[in-house]
Here is the input.
Amino acid sequence: MALLLREWLVRVLQYSAPFVSSQDISKGAQWLITISDELNDTSEGIVCVTGRNYESPWLNYEAGALAKTTGQTAVRTVLLGLAARDIPPSMPLSNFQHTIALDKSEMWALVRSIHSRSGAGDADISAIEWAFNQSWPELKNNLEAIEVPPQAVTESGDEQSLIKDVLQEVKSLSISLAALGESVRKADEPPEDSKERLSDEEIRVVRPGTALRHRTFGIGLVIAVEKEGKEKVATINFRDGQKRLLLRYAPVTIVP
Here is the structure.
């Protein structure tokens, strides 16, 4: 299901770069560090939920880690073979706003939500809707072809107690991951006592070739500027790609 959504998303939102936790971690890599690095660069999260995995500790763990890193509104649970009412209120996944995978209108709402938060304002929403409509029948057919197991039978008291213990451990791991992600971010940030905004004079001297340090994106090189004064916009080439920033508000400092 996750692999189908990854292929489909890049056809609909061509600027997206999905990462699938079960497939995109190299053999021999430290999964906790790899996931932490990915979370640092992640603005949206999709959690694939079925009747077999909705109680999976690792699924709940990664959903919780995404919520802590991106904000809960950026985490989207997509249900296949389940309705929202099938997830018990005691499960962490019950806290999210669910999307039914086989419901076209709900999936389109998911795509629009991701696009609206993406910052890709230059992408034509009508072109995205056309790509969605063109690719939807194939996605729906492929999802329907997945053999979804029936929802798990309610557990006994002992099993419920075991699950509760496991989820508590998952919660602890999620807190550790959030702390690790915070330490990685802080390593790339300037010292706390440094400025996080450019002065009017500093904005004036920013030109192509100026190196800037962004609080989130790290160090980048200005390749173009537009307008002047408080309206000055810089196009900056960071390690993860180009960004257009209004210098008056951007959390950047000039790198000597």
